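Apologies for my clumsy wording, but are you able to produce some protein sequence, whichever is easiest, and the tokens describing how it folds?
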Amino acid sequence: MIPSADYPLVDSQSRSGVSWAAIFAGAAAAAALAIILVVLGAGLGFAATSPWADEGASAKALGISTIVWLLVTQIIASGLGGYIAGRLRVKWANLHGDEVYFRDTAHGFLSWAVATLVAAMLVVGAAGNLAGAGASAASQAASMTAAAGGAAAASADKNSMGYFVDSLFRGDGPAPVSEDAANGIAARIMVKGVANGTLPPEDRTYLAQLVAQRTRLSQAEAEARVDQVMAQVQQFKTDAKQAADKAAKVAAWTALWTFVALLCGAFFASLAALYGGRRRDRVQWMESEYVAHRTVQR
């Protein structure tokens, strides 16, 4: 291309390759559309759920739909932002085609990056406000429960060796004690059994004797009740571990799919900016034709 008065060579070489106005315009459009789509997705999700059991969409269906909606949101919003950034950027004259492609792609990527940073700042700011409110409430609660907390800590230290202290005073059978004392002894034996995975035979026998003494059951019936309760406690422990493992897997998959969605957003923003830049370069300026037509008439 030969330099002209409209596009001098010196100005083209000294001009910055970044059109920040176009980038911020695309980022603003992407962020706004992302907010709209997220709100729409939240509304659809609330409409599909139900507070009653066995009604509404299942947790698996909601998880899959959330991932799909996150991908759709990133693709549409980032694509719009990239297209606007590419379409509104300054036209570069006297440049090789590959350089124009690179700059258009960079404009789309930068618009996606700015929109992502703005969204991250909003999320972090909201989380910070919630954390600040929680810290304020916690400080007020701490001032009211300091004495109770100190007493609880002293009690925990005192009872940390309670199981072994109880073992020192065991006889052939449990001595008559109050309800609270019996409950404390039984609780310490069961905690020890849950920690070890099973009750030792001597603990099982002693606990069954304690149960038989207070419930008027036979020794065999008391032992059966001890086994039943310990099985329930072990099942509760197993269920808690499974729930924790499931929550960890859900968090991991959520992070991975968020990563994939962000990558898709960056790719489609760059691709849309490239398309918008091509459309921008094909625009015909009517002003030049109007000036040429006026010159011919004169």
About this structure: Confidence is low (pLDDT under 50) at residues 1-11, 145-156. Residues 104 and 274 are 5 Å apart (CA to CA). DSSP finds nine helices and no strands in the chain.
